[in-house]
Amino acid sequence: MMAMLRRLLNRIRMLFASGRLDRDFAAELESHLSLHIDDNLRAGMGPDEARRAALARLGGMSQAQEARRESRGIPALERFLRDVRYGARALRAMPAFTLVAVLTLGLGIGANAAIFSVINAALFQPLPVERPEELVTINHARGGLPIHSYPDYRDFRDRGSLLAGVAAFRISPMNLDLDGVATRVWGNLVSGNYFELLGVRPVLGRTLTPADDRVPGAHPVLVLAYECWQARFAGDPNIVGRTVRINGAAFTILGVLPAGFHGTEHLVAPELWVPIMMQAHVESGNDWLERRRTHNIMVVGRLGAGVSHAQAEASLNAIAAALAREYPASNEGMRLMLSSPGLVGTLLRGPMIGFSGALLAIAGLVLLLTCTNLTGLLLARSTDRQRDTAIRLALGAGRGDLVRRSLVESALVSLAGAGAALVFADVFAALLTGWRPPGDFPLGLRVELDYRVLAFSLGLAALATFLVGFIPAISSARTAIVSGLKEETVRWRGGWHARDVIVAVQVALSTILLVGSLLVVRSLQQASTLDIGFNPDGAVSAKVDLGLQGYERDRALAFQRELLERVAALPGIDSAATANAIPLGTDISTHSVYVEGRPEPRGVDIPEAIYYQVSPGFFRAMEMRLMAGRDFEPGDVRGSRPVAVVNQAFADQLLGAGPAVGKRFRSGRTGAWIEIIGVVQNGKYQSLGESPQPAAFHSAMQWYNPTTTVVARSGLPAGEVLALIRTVVRNLDPGLPVFDDMPLSRILALPLLPARIAAGFLAAFGALALVLVLVGTYGLISYGIAQRTREICIRLAVGAASRHIAGLVLGRAAVVWAVGVTLGVAAALAGAPALDPILFRVDARDPVVFLAACAILALITAAACWFPIRRALVADPSGLLRRG
Amino acid sequence: VLLVSHMKEKAEVWQGTLALMVLKTLETMGPQHGYGLARRIEQTSRDLLSLNYGTLYPALLKLEQEGYITSEWGLSDNNRKAKFYSLTRAGRKQLEREAREWHRTTGIIARFFAPEENS
User: Which residues pair with A301 in a beta bridge?
Assistant: First the structure.
């Protein structure tokens, strides 16, 4: 055993010292010969005879050397290294080919690696907490946002579910006051057991504990994210115990969390954590701790040891059923469901998987396409080397050797490609990590190239090795010695040359990519003509949050009135208004609707309407068409009759027959009735794909909201208008931060983001596909013509019409093309519905798109055929024949 | 056929026994170069054995890989540069083992050809 191990180690050592050992051995044989010759001379031989005899006894130097070499290293490994050296030399000999091959494969694998790195970050990378696989988010079984009321959370916690523990958190904006300048930052309101449940330990000071979250309003403490500590407090080592002002009140810093911890959600990276008991202070005046109807906190739980997902879910549903019995008005029909945390429960998880899966599929197609293209190139080369191959075979090379050599060559290209891919993917990851999505959420997603991305890329490289190397390998192994020496081509069964198959596959793949990109581009085009219910062009919006700044109601209302008056009075402003939020923004609120004179709905059947609190002039500034009734007037203030404007969908779906204006509804089972004074056109409020949803617009003067969005319409450039608005705000309150200030059209950026990403990818890939098809077809035709030059010349010489010759060559291309397009169209028809979620008003099987794709491909193919044919036809037949 | 009959004049060295001869020769003679070993083995066999010198070196390499011998460049008696092989401690043990094995094997074979035992 020891001897075997020692021998193996020695062999490996010798493998790497082979050059030196060969020289050493040559010297030893030389010395052997000299010693023998000396002896022979002493025995009386002549010098020549002495040398000859010695050489004869040694049995031939090269045999001796070979025999020795065989027993020296590990022959299989050595052969492999020789193949690698041979392959590297072959690739170095063709730098242009190698560069193109490595770059295209790099792009192909890189596109996959980049998309996979995002999927990896969102779905596979565990959260930096203790035993992250045990964490679950509590969702509603009916879907939607996984948000619950605080009393419901308390019941999940205290009524004996099988979860080992549950913690509540709410992602909430806060004004952090640093040296007199308030900055709006994102924070988390969390229950006291949050850090204990997650198992997160601070790097400095301590985290929040249940003792910090007992009495409403009594715990002005917070902990900082590491990144916030570094960026805003310069990593001050004495930070613990310092006080900072949050929304105007002093909070004591208890500690700093470890780097990389951003809570349990990927989409928002909070900077600070505050006890949930402080919510009324953070969200001033809005006290919801005891309100079972206010759903606004997310709940994360931990599965206890030995408890299955299903058991925990069942135990929660038992609690939900009890709550539905006890509080039918708010909880009837309540059913719960567990999911992994990170992507807002089930809300984004499915779409994320679907969307990134679709992107990955597209990137996969591109990789396949680049592989077929490389296969074509390698195949052309192996055909060129056919004579060479045949000679090798004739000299006794094994066909296995040829296959191995070809695969080693493509493996080298693939590995280099994977290297290039990782560089591309790394650049992409850096861009993405620094990228801020539209809207003002700091992304908590950390895209980095970890071992999973590396393994994925290497796996793809291995796959590419076989995809690229297999056909050329087989083709060279099938070289028949005799015909190969005569430079005849190998044909596949049924007369299809490997090259035809490749071009057909390329045409098919391009059809799919082309259909995909045309669909998305058409959809984006449609989206720009989509009626979103307001005109985003020629207007700007900007936000301030008075609540965060500690304004109480009357002061805030005065501020809002003053702000609107000053903005409206600015030169060049056509119209202006304020509102709590604007449609298609990230701030969406809904309330229940109870219509006067209709049966009272209960539990999950209570209809909901999206609502906004707006100033007079809002509909004009947004260019929302008023269908009936009137706009708000300065008289619609607190104390006067409560009034609202609703949209058409509200009137149609909730009010029943008869004119809407004059009807009354309220947002709760009790409270004042609100009279409808006008009806506006429907619009898009949450997403571009939604069907018309009920919406209600209330008077901001009657229903106060401290969040204030200014909308101004003007012929001036957006930048100028925004600068003017910022000046107005600064003059009113120098400490008040303005955020989300942008041209109104930017509001479309977030809802259009998935389609834009997909369109970018698809357009780039579609263009790449077209170039590859062009090159591939061109090569196919040129090659076909080159093969038949002799035949064509003879035909031309005996008087065949050019048209006939062109038909001869094109016939084959047409068949290949038709097969490719048919396959591609079939695959695209099957796969296109995957794009449905990002398509607006375009059928995934839109015949126009399919026809256009085919037409474009036909044009490209025709162009690729035209040049080689023309060249063949204008050639001088006799000259070509003599050369051929 | 011609080749075989031609080489029948002297006994060929059996596979495996060459290593034993090398080890034994090194034990009795001390460090020795390849050519010297070859000549010594021929002399010991009283020229009954004809050694193909080309096969000696792979055998030496194998022994070296197994750690039974080591090599070192030095000068021969007539001032030629030569590689000298010497026995290692492991080689000495291996020789004892192999010798024991050899005696046993030859003993067994001898018994088959002994005339007086049961026939």
Answer: A136, A166
Element (H, E) at A38: helix A18-42
Which has more pLDDT, A767 or A649? A649
Between the alpha carbon of residue A706 and those of residues A548, A554, A562, A614, the distances in Å are 8, 10, 14, 12
Residue A255 has pLDDT above 50, yes or no: yes
Across the A:B interface, residue pairs with CB atoms under 8 Å apart total: 71
CA distances from A687 to A516, A533, B14 (A): 22, 12, 88
Report the C-alpha gap between B31 and A617 in whole angstroms: 109
* Helices H / strands E in chain A, number of each: 27, 22
From first CA to last CA, the distance across chain A in angstroms is: 65
Q: Helices A847-874 and A802-831: crossing angle, nearest 10°? A: 150
A161-A353-A108 Cα angle (round to 5) = 150
- Across the interface, of B54, B76, B80, the residue whose CB is closest to A60 is B54
DSSP label of B42: H
For residue A305, count other CB atoms closer than 10 A to its CB.
8
A64 CB neighbours in chain B (<8 A) are 53-54, 57-58
Token pair for residue A586?
């990230």
Residue A590's closest CA among A636, A534, A631, A650?
A650
For the stretch A718-727, pLDDT in tens is 888 888 898 8
Q: Residue B48: which residues within 8 A CB-CB, separation 6 or more?
A: B10, B11
The SS3 call for residue A388 is: helix
How large is the angle between the packed helices A399-434 and A346-384, nearest 10 degrees? 140
Burial class (CB in 10 A: 0-12, 13-18, 19+), A414: buried
Chain A residues within 8 A of B35 when measuring between CB atoms: 31-32, 35-36
For residue A754, give the 3-state DSSP assignment.
helix
Sign of the CA dihedral A7, A11, A12, A16? positive
pLDDT per position as a tens digit, A735-788? 788 888 888 888 777 777 777 777 777 777 777 777 777 777 777 677 667 666
Contact call for residues A251 and A243 (beta carbons, < 8 A): yes
CA A812 vs CA A489, A495, A785, A806, A819: distances in Å: 16, 11, 11, 10, 11
Q: At what angle do helices A718-732 and A553-568 cross, to 10 degrees?
A: 140
pLDDT at A481 over 60: no
Contact present, A854 and A770 (Cβ < 8 Å): no
DSSP label of A494? G
Using a CB-CB cut-off of 8 Å, the residues of chain A touching B13 are: none
From CA A419, how far away is CA A417, in angstroms rounded? 5
- pLDDT score of A493: 40
Choose, out of A68, A72, A74, the residue to mutate when testing the contact with B (most B CBs < 10 Å).
A68
pLDDT for the residue numbered A442? 62
Take residue A167 and report the two structure tokens written for it.
């913690």
Please write the tens of the pLDDT for every residue from A791-804: 777 777 777 777 77
Q: Which two tokens stand for residue A466?
A: 């076989």
- ∠ CA A429-A434-A435, rounded to 5°: 95
Sheet holding B69-75, edge to edge: B32-33, B81-87, B69-75
